[in-house]
Amino acid sequence: MINVxxxxxxxxxxxxxxxxxxxDRVWLTNNGPLVNELELKLKDYLxxxxxxxxxxxxxxxxxxxxxxxxxxxxxxxPFSFVAxxxxxxxxxxxxxxxxxxxxxxxxDPALIEAAITxxxxxxxxxxxxxxxCDIEAxxxxxxxxxxxxxxxxxxxxxxxxxxxxxxxxxxxxxxxxHATKLFHSTEGGAVVTKDSNxxxxxxxxxxxxxxxxxxxxxxxxxxxNSEFHAAMGLCNLKxxxxxxxxxxxxxxxxxxxxxHANLGGITLNEQAGFNYAYCPFIFESEQVLLKVIKELxxxxxxxxxxxxxxxxxxxxxKPANTPISGDIxxxxxxxxxxxxxxxxxxxxxxxxxxxxxxx
Length: 359
Ligand SMILES: *Cc1c(COP(=O)(O)O)cnc(C)c1O
Hints:
Layout (H helix, E strand, L loop, with lengths): L1 E2 L8 H14 L7 H14 L3 E5 L2 H11 L5 E4 L5 H9 L3 E4 L22 E7 L8 H11 L2 E5 L7 E2 L2 E2 L6 E5 L12 E5 L2 H10 L4 E3 L2 E2 L10 H11 L2 H19 L20 E4 L3 H13 L2 E2 L20 H9 E4 L7 H15 L2
């Protein structure tokens, strides 16, 4: 079976070394030395000031919304993973969907201002597939209307914007280190900010609100992560440059084999700094997409409909008219991209796809 993603695993002995240390120290969780080491190494690798390692990317979004004290409406993208929207609702805010740009598949900044009301408190945008948003345009709008900005950078490990880590932008940027992501710690996530006050607030929030052994600064949650997860992150971080290079090679190979024109549709227009985390292809119609899935599954290849359904159609949000997102969601498919994917397998997948769409 070839899945849309397959987690990278480091050599077992390297993980085992970390396990020995955990056994010696009998320090399993609660801000342990490996969590600290991973935070330091991630900050160093990414070139960011402040980063907190958290239990997952969903809690990272929720902590970000809580730390900024957001209320009322949050403008967001309908084309993302469901956690981008569910976190807003879970935190008692209302998602207001603004349609995406057909080329980047990210929120379209030209449509944001029309959606702002007196109740709008923030913009929460995803760098979808690791392709950076039009950050400059979003920041201009946010500054003009005094809105906070959160970026969901769950796909964007290694993505840069104007030569800096994309995690540096926004009041807070969140990310996920889930096993399916390009860089992972089995389960995990992080928040990144340039603001040291926000950092302190979020460090209380992730640990039940504790600001001392017997004192609580605020209502908190358990957003901590363990030494075992940090160990996986430390092992994988050693290989991150290889992982990123391989993703680009896979992307290039698919595009060489399938071209842009053959799909009869549009393809993701890569922005500068893109990390090639996913290989999405947009087919002519949903019917063609379903045919392609069926053919691939017949060959034990499992692509995924990232992202479907369009989030503005969820049963717990106010319906919104986002025709571009609805259209793209109905006919986009992510083809397998994982570290050990070989050129032969990519060739086979490309052949099956081309045969199906040309039939
Ligand atoms: C994976 C993902 C999340 C959630 O991260 P978890 O670590 O799985 O909780 C949030 N947003 C996007 C865009 C994602 O792809």
